[in-house]
Automatic annotation (TrEMBL):
It comes from Scylla paramamosain (Mud crab). GO terms for cellular component: extracellular matrix; extracellular space. Residues 1-17 form the signal peptide. This is Cuticle protein. InterPro entries: Insect_cuticle, Insect_Cuticle_Struc_Prot. The keyword Signal applies. It comes from the Eukaryota. Keywords: Cuticle, Signal. GO terms for molecular function: structural constituent of cuticle.
Length: 143
């Protein structure tokens, strides 16, 4: 009996929680949903952007050598970056962006690609030694 009361209460709760929107019928417009209005409005910039930055990394131990620099004044941006390639060349990219003209880049390489002759030798023989046989001695049986 208690189970019937619980089920009837759950059914009543689901029925009362249903929204009072009639189901769409044939030819009737479906209910429309709209995104909420934004509550935050970003402040308008006071001046056009202007910045200048650069960085460089040169690590002799790992061979890393790369860097970049960029300057922007309003809609005019100019910059470059470079990286040491694994074949020994230095790749440089110089770019500009002027308003709506898009990103215009010029890629250059310095140096000659180096591919050292590699000598191949047979793999060394494995030095695997099997584990010694277990020296298990059963415990004495007491009678």
């Amino acid at each position: 009996m208690a189970l019937k009361v619980v089920l009837l209460s759950a059914l009543a709760a689901v029925t009362l929680a249903r929204p009072d929107i009639p189901p769409p019928s044939y030819g009737a417009p479906a209910p429309s949903y709209h995104a909420p209005a934004p509550s935050y409005h970003a402040p308008a910039p006071e001046a056009p952007p202007k910045y200048d930055y650069n960085y460089a990394v040169k690590d002799e131990y790992s061979g890393n050598d790369f860097g970049a620099q960029e300057a922007r004044d309003g809609y005019d941006t100019q910059g470059s970056y470079y990286v040491q390639l694994p074949d020994g060349r230095l790749q440089k990219v110089t770019y500009t962006v002027n308003g709506d003209s898009g990103f215009v880049a010029e890629v250059t390489y310095e140096g000659e690609a180096q591919y050292p002759q590699e000598s191949y030798a047979p793999a060394p023989k494995p030095s695997y030694v099997p584990a010694p046989a277990p020296s298990y001695v059963p415990a004495p049986a007491y009678q």
